[in-house]
Amino acid sequence: MEDNPNKYTIKLDKSTDTTDGIDTYNITWTIPIIYQLLQTKAMDDDFPKLRRTVVEVPDTPFKMKVSFYGNAVIMIYYLSSTSLFMKWSLEYRLPNFFNVLPIKDYETVQANKWQHCLGIRLKDLSANKTAPLYLSFKLIVSHAFKAGICSNILLPYIQLSEDFGNLLTDDSFSDVTIKSAEGIEFKAHKSVLAVRSKVLRAHFEHSTKENITNIVETLWDTEVLRDVLTFVYTDKVPRVYDAPEKLLVAADYYQLDRLK
């Protein structure tokens, strides 16, 4: 379900350094009454039903997206319509909640591919029921290097896919356990999860609970989680028609674009 983007406000401040070939975009996205969005029936269900809004930033190549899930969880993304060599930072604010993600290193961003920035679990919302959420992006684009061109040609790495698939049934070298909503455990590998999903990688980058305990608890049904892991390891989804709506939500949550 997608919200009406017209009720959100975007403020843009752009500057250009012609000497170094740098464009800096300071974009502030205001999402009003975030408390009400997170208290709708869809947000309160045990299984997180996807709700999202996308806004296009005028006079820039960028779009922003926020996906809303159950348990007061939101995921934040940005997208560029062209391939860019860039870096970014993000500040998010509520009246009683504030944090800043430091600026990242330069990287090549592929055109028309959603880039995951952050997941937030807003447990302690402001007592002010009309409080907005402010998202302030700083996007720095360098024109000194030409962004790489992404090829869409798929190569038939059949044996490689099968070998990685075998890792799911052989836990000899696993270093993390992923649990379904029913408590079924899957033995996995941090390096594989991290390289395939920026959302999963975020679990292991800092001193998070998941990185310390080596256990990742999820809200996904066992069959959905099995299909997600199968795709992560093999790029294949053997039971895509079993629960397509739930699988779509999981694919969006983990930013697995080719699974959607």
Structural write-up:
The protein has 260 residues and is α+β, with helices and mostly antiparallel strands. It folds into two domains: 5-142, Apoptosis, Tumor Necrosis Factor Receptor Associated Protein 2, Chain A; 158-259, Potassium Channel Kv1.1, Chain A (2-Layer Sandwich), CATH 3.30.710.10. Helices cover 22% and strands 34% of the residues. It is built from eight helices and 13 strands. It has helices at 34-37, 41-44, 158-166, 190-196, 198-202, 209-213, 222-234, 244-253; strands at 9-17, 22-31, 51-56, 62-69, 73-80, 84-94, 97-101, 107-109, 115-121, 133-142, 176-179, 185-188, 215-217. Strands 1, 2, 6, 7, 8 and 10 form a six-stranded antiparallel β-sheet that branches. Strands 3-4-5-9 form a four-stranded antiparallel β-sheet. A three-stranded mixed β-sheet has the order 12-11-13. The longest helix is centred in the last third of the chain and has 13 residues, at 222-234. Residues 42-47 and 147-157 have low confidence and may be disordered.
How is the topology of this model organized?
Blueprint: E1 9-17, E2 22-31, H1 34-37, H2 41-44, E3 51-56, E4 62-69, E5 73-80, E6 84-94, E7 97-101, E8 107-109, E9 115-121, E10 133-142, H3 158-166, E11 176-179, E12 185-188, H4 190-196, H5 198-202, H6 209-213, E13 215-217, H7 222-234, H8 244-253
Parallel strand pairs: 11-13
Antiparallel strand pairs: 1-2, 2-10, 3-4, 4-5, 5-9, 6-7, 6-8, 6-10, 11-12
